[in-house]
């Protein structure tokens, strides 16, 4: 009996010329998403700014002249540090033994904080063994417009260009970048100064309920503080519910915890806090 030996496997960075093949591979690995959906997200990755010296798309495994495995890497500068969202890790079953090649290579830079915000259940033991630790566990499906508050504030919707009055905010670039990706960026102007927020579109309950996800704020308690005006602002734009990441007891907001199995992980010098998913896959790829 003759057994065909598998073709040699090599690891390399993803290039622009690989994007169609990578999209097809990911659509097979994650069949709830179409190749067109992956192409749209990869096109956004191609257009965004990336810190010098870091991969634009990530890494693939190649065998016989075609990709057989992929790990996307969304690298961004967040504050004074670097963050890399490891996303969409898939290797064809015939090459599963080579899967650690992707992750081990990706994790080599100790200056970078790596995050995995949507790990498949079967990969959690692997990433925990690599030193990843949870930074949020579960989600709150909140109805913030029901919260009553007496504080007088003004809300400012931010587009692709940040108004001059907020140009000096440390988050000015973050607000503009996320607005450019279709997120809802808002600055709440209160007596103690401006407070930035970013929300990304989601759908829950079998994708029937229009919802937003709190993607960035300085602290979840800021969202609790301004929940009433923010919630009514979003409600008027067709979004009655807001998803808030949890790491402990639910904050004092109308709503109920959901997806308690949804754990997000990080490894590195600057672990994110709940409520900070800036520049991650939910922003780049969308709902």
TrEMBL record:
<protein>
    <recommendedName>
        <fullName>Acyl-CoA acyltransferase</fullName>
    </recommendedName>
</protein>
<dbReference type="InterPro" id="IPR016181">
    <property type="entry name" value="Acyl_CoA_acyltransferase"/>
</dbReference>
């Amino acid at each position: 009996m003759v057994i065909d030996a598998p073709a040699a496997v090599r690891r390399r960075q993803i290039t622009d010329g690989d994007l169609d093949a990578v999209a097809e591979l990911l659509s097979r690995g994650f069949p709830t998403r179409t190749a067109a959906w992956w192409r749209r997200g990869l096109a956004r990755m191609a257009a965004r700014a990336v810190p010098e010296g870091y991969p634009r798309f990530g890494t693939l495994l190649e065998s016989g002249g075609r990709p057989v495995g992929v790990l996307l890497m969304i690298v961004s500068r967040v504050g004074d540090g670097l963050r890399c969202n490891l996303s969409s890790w898939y290797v064809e079953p015939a090459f599963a033994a080579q899967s650690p090649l992707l992750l081990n290579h990706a994790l080599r830079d100790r200056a970078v904080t790596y995050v995995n915000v949507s790990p498949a259940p079967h990969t959690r033991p692997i990433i925990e063994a690599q030193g990843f630790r949870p930074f949020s566990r579960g989600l709150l499906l909140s109805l913030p417009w029901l919260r009553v508050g007496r504080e007088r504030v003004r809300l400012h919707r931010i587009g692709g260009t940040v108004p001059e009055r907020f140009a000096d905010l440390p988050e000015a670039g973050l607000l503009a970048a996320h607005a450019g990706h279709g997120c809802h960026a808002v600055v709440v102007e209160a007596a103690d100064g401006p407070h930035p927020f970013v929300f990304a579109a989601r759908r829950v309950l079998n994708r029937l309920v229009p919802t937003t996800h709190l993607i960035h704020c300085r602290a979840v308690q800021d969202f609790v503080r301004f929940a009433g005006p923010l919630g009514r602002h979003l409600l008027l734009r067709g979004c009655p519910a807001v998803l808030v990441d949890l790491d402990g007891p639910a904050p004092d907001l109308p709503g109920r915890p959901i997806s308690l199995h949804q754990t997000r992980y990080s490894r590195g010098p600057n672990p994110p806090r709940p409520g900070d998913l800036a520049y991650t896959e939910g922003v780049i790829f969308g709902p």
